[in-house]
Fold this sequence. Notes:
11 helices; 7-stranded mixed beta sheet; Rossmann fold; 4-stranded mixed beta sheet
Amino acid sequence: MIPTLEWTPEGVRFLDQTRLPLEETYVLATSYQQVAEVITTMVVRGAPAIGVSAAMGLALGVKTSHATNVSALAAEFETMCRTLAATRPTAVNLFWAIERMKRRFTEEAARTGATPNSIRTALIAEALRMYDEDIAACRRMGSHGAALLPRSGGVLTHCNAGALATCGYGSALGVIRSAVEQGHQIHVYADETRPFLQGARLTAWELMHDGIPTTVLCDNMAASLMRQGKIQAVIVGADRIAANGDVANKIGTYTVAVLAKENGIPFYVAAPISTIDFACPDGSKIPIEQRSVREVTHIAGKQMTPDGVSIENPAFDVTPAKYVTGIITERGIARAPYEESLHSLASTETKVEV
Length: 354
Ligand code: MRU
């Protein structure tokens, strides 16, 4: 399996996604501040991977803290949570993971006889549990979603919602993997995904690693291929899904969704329940990360635009729910009206088995 991130006795080890596909190198974070830096600089990226990385960052923070009593550790833990929460604003999995670690801290701290060491043990175990649950959720999304993909044909994806964006297997690419495992003859079309090129660099690398036939497209080619009948379905991941089913995902996803509708092609989103933000009524309330203009002005270190020109670089866009054919989660598939279907999936008792 692709080792996106891993807890080790020395710290958290990350496959450096900024260097793929040309170099397969690793970064070892030995402090929570380094984990925050690794998330901000996109050494690790993708909503579920960001969430579990933050949880491991907190586990690492309490492990390496010198606090000798529970209240001193609690004060330091607050700072750790704030630092990690300030890394990337759109992926709600980040905040979900931090909240879950906070709850575990509070629970353990309230136990009679709790000590800094018992909290350290509890938080490390919780982060490892989240890692295992994430892989199990991806496999479940895969088995729920596989039948939605064509027995034979082209499937377009945008950005990277694969093993590299999760702890393993992937959300959107997990559904593709599962369909391929069940014998579907799928050819993947991967949008290159300017400006960070997650499709060209990461999706292509990851699918080739698994021997799944893949063609990389420039972002402006999808419409033409759809018109030619080369694409039978679209599947993408999500960074945050509002309660009404509006989906924030990598910039350019909205374009693909509109094109899919115009061409009569189903548009699916695969995401774990932790990506649904029920506190967010619709997509207009989702915070959109603005990244450095340099990602747009430069390609591989070479300037492409005139000095001083104005630049936009929103990292995500919002696809209105009306373009979404179905949302594949680890608990099943939600269909419109999403206010009801997402709620009923989230409130089902089924826990993801690890
Ligand atoms: O900026 P990134 O690379 O973190 O954006 C990633 C995406 O948009 C993914 O599609 C999303 O996080 C889902 S990953 C399973």
